[in-house]
Structure formats: structure tokens, C-alpha cells
Amino acid sequence: MRTSPPTTRVLQVLDFLVAAGGKRFGLSQLARELDLSKPTCLGILTAMTDGGYLLRDPVTKTYGLGPALITAGRVAQEGFTAAGLARPMLEELAERYACVCSASAVVGEQIVVLERTGPGMAGQRYPFAPPVGLMYVLWGPDADFERWLAKPPTLPVKLNRPRLRQVGAECRERGYLVESLTLAGVRLHSLMAGVAAYDLPAEVRDLVGEMVSNLGERFYLAEDLAPRKKQPVNFIAAPTFNALGAQELVLTLSVGMTITGAEIARRGQALTEIAAKVTAAVGG
Fold it and tell me: Which is nearest to 137 in space by CA: 101, 163, 103, 111?
């Protein structure tokens, strides 16, 4: 994995000041402690001060942590707090159904798995663009949904916009999303894990795009979920909301088998109950 020495040096400064517990340091002391030349250290400190990540005392000419880190920390804390609250409830649900459950969210232009039960690890990332990411905009403002639809697809999939809008309307009423179990869908998530958007070679993009086919058809509508009708299900997903009423996390319950519409409804209700508890716990 390639690393960036300039970025590493910026992180050194941040880590050192965080570990110092709020103490301030002058240029010479920081350069000496971090084994940096003074010109290099000054350039880093100046850029970070301009961005609000550090503050420079005009009298003592010392540097300390700045207000921009408060905002960044608050956003990160909110996301991880909700995911942390969800984890014990997801573990109980995973044990009940002998499955894997997860909590994930959109961070920047990527989807990040924050918590995961069972095999695998949290921290997986996916590009937030079609054909991945529908469930992160289903329960938000229509404008967010339309912006996601307008993103250039990471794979050349067909976007059946009327059906996707119908999926969205039904999921808002039902409270959860149900994805069908197909080989293409399972392979899609495996392939896209950790891949930056649009980084796949063109021939691979075309091939996987053919596998995935029509995006809207991967998700069930109400007419597909009759109580006695059996359907192959990949996963069920439900949202949580933050204190501002915005969609925050997506909780998922893996299924990986064919079950009846009645069983889908039971599992969907169990997942939405957990989502509602997480939402209430964060003041949503």
C-alpha cells in the first residue's frame, strides 16, 4: 500500500498534540520532538492553522489544537455513537437468526461499515454511487435521492428510475428494504469492497455491469412479498435517524436463503424495532 510522507507528517503533528493533552508548543520544540526540519514543520503548522485545525498564540507563538477539530470530532462521534449503541442489539438479532448484522453510514463519498457481527470486520468501504448506496438515500429528502441517481454509475448498470422511485416510496411506508438473493448481487458487494469509485478496469466494469443488470429489479416491491410467497433474500435494511431528523445509519440483517413473505415481515419488523431504539437513544 502506498503512503504519502507529507500526509504522515501532518498526522504526526496531530497525534503529538492530542497526546500532549492540550499543551502548546513552539516551532522549535515541535520540530525537535517530531524530528522535522524547521522549514518543513513551519509549512505544516501554517497550513493547519489556516485551516483552523491548529491555533497559534500571537504572544507566545505556540501552537495548539484548533476549533476545526471540534466539528470533525463531533461528526465522527455522532456516527460512532449511534453504531456503538446499535451493536449489542444487532448481536442479539444475529444470534436469534444465526446471521450477520451490520451498521454502516456514508462518510464523504464512501460507504463505511462501522459495526459488524460474526465473520468479517468493520471498516469495509464501498463507493457511494450507483449501483451501490440506494438504501442510504431512501429515507432522506427527495433531493438526496435524486442526487444519488444523477451520480455517474461506478458500473454500467441500467437505472430504472420509475421502479427505483417506487421502491423508495414503498420502503418509506414499510420501514425497511429487501434485496433479492442473486449471484450477481453477492459478487457485486464482494467486488466493490475497498474499491475506489471508477477505479475498476473498463473491461471489468462492463462485465460486472452485465452481471448486475437492472438495479431496480434487485429490490422487492410489496406485490412480491405476499405472506405465503417464498422469495430468495440477500439482506433486509432499515434506517436510523439523528437528532436533526436526517438518515444516519443503515442497519442490515443478512438472510442468504429463501423465506416466506411472512418471515421477511417478521425479520424486517425486528430490524426496524432496533433502528427505532437507536434513533430514540441519540435523540432522533
Answer: 111
